[in-house]
Design a protein that fits this description.
This protein is of the alpha+beta class. It has a single domain, classed as Glutamine Phosphoribosylpyrophosphate, subunit 1, domain 1. It is 36% helix and 24% strand. It is built from 7 helices and 14 strands. The strands form 3 sheets. Strands 12-2-3-13-14 form a 5-stranded antiparallel sheet, covered by helices on one side. Strands 6-7-9-10-11 form a 5-stranded antiparallel sheet. It has a 4-stranded antiparallel sheet with strand order 5-4-1-8. Strand 10 and strand 11 form a beta hairpin. Helix 2 crosses helix 3 and helix 6 packs across helix 7. The longest helix has 22 residues. The radius of gyration is 20 Å and the shape is globular. It starts with 15 loop residues before the first helix and ends with a helix.
């Protein structure tokens, strides 16, 4: 491939994406606004309860208006007492989670003790900040981080922005395309004395309504056996709920909604 040359009136300017488009080497679909059309994970949330934190996320990933994956996982253990849920560009997000897991394990092996929960949040913030150049091109990663603080004996959760800003939330948090709808449901149903069962049902109800309002958020798919990923983080550690239990909760939510419609 030789050096591309353009006449003054045909110069693509400083945009590298436009240059690739002009020369026929665009690796990703680019819309008129200049945003790359890559796979994006959508809605995740976290809710504090009396003994820890519940994290949940839908399973859909989208590429523009298309469903690119129906069963992507968005909630992962970071270590024994913490977890991370991803929203944004799916590829960079999953890679970030893997690197984050390795960093926490490496610290524990070198120091002989686990990093504090705030230290883990700071480490994740640095990874997000390192992704800022890609985020400015449309490949943003906006995760949630939550865990059980063994020193305080309580669950804690953190939100981030694309620049790596870390913000601790008191009761609940959500991010992704359906986060507005999910947050509204959680806000209306949250109580500070709720137990794990109530927090799980509230999280699933929030994802249900988010999927009902946001096309990029996937709801339960009993035909394919695909259900949102839900995990609790307590003093006993990170525990993912089996699909059969999640399906049972959704059956109860569906029955409740049918009664309301009736």
């Amino acid at each position: 491939m030789g050096m591309p040359f353009f006449r003054p009136g045909d110069d693509p300017g400083p945009s590298f994406v436009d240059l690739l488009d002009r020369t026929g080497h665009t690796p990703l679909t680019v819309d008129p606004a200049g945003h790359v059309d890559a796979g994006h994970a959508t809605t995740v949330l976290a809710i504090r309860f009396a003994d820890g934190v519940v994290m949940a996320g839908d399973r859909r990933a989208t590429s523009g208006h298309l469903i690119s994956h129906r069963a992507i996982e968005k909630v992962f253990p970071a270590d024994r007492h913490s977890g991370v849920a991803i929203a944004g560009a799916a590829g960079p997000a999953v890679q970030m989670v893997r690197l984050f897991q390795v960093q926490l394990e490496h610290y524990e092996k070198v120091e002989g003790q686990t990093l504090s929960l705030e230290g883990k949040g700071n480490q994740l913030a640095q990874l997000i900040r390192g992704n800022l150049p890609a985020a400015m091109q449309g490949l943003a990663v906006i995760p949630l981080f939550a865990g059980y603080d063994t020193h305080r004996g309580a669950g804690r959760l953190f939100q981030f922005d694309i620049t790596g800003g870390r913000y601790e939330e008191r009761d609940h948090a959500a991010t992704g395309s359906g986060s507005l709808h999910a947050s509204t449901v959680v806000k209306l149903g949250f109580t500070r004395d709720m137990d794990a069962e109530a927090a799980i049902v509230l999280a699933l109800r929030a994802l249900w309504h988010a999927a009902d309002e946001d096309s990029a958020t996937g709801g339960p798919d009993p035909i394919r056996g695909i259900y949102p990923v839900v995990a609790t983080i307590t003093a006993e550690g990170f525990q993912k709920l089996p699909d059969s239990e999640v399906a049972g909760h959704f059956a109860g939510i569906e029955a409740e909604l049918r009664d309301q419609e009736a």
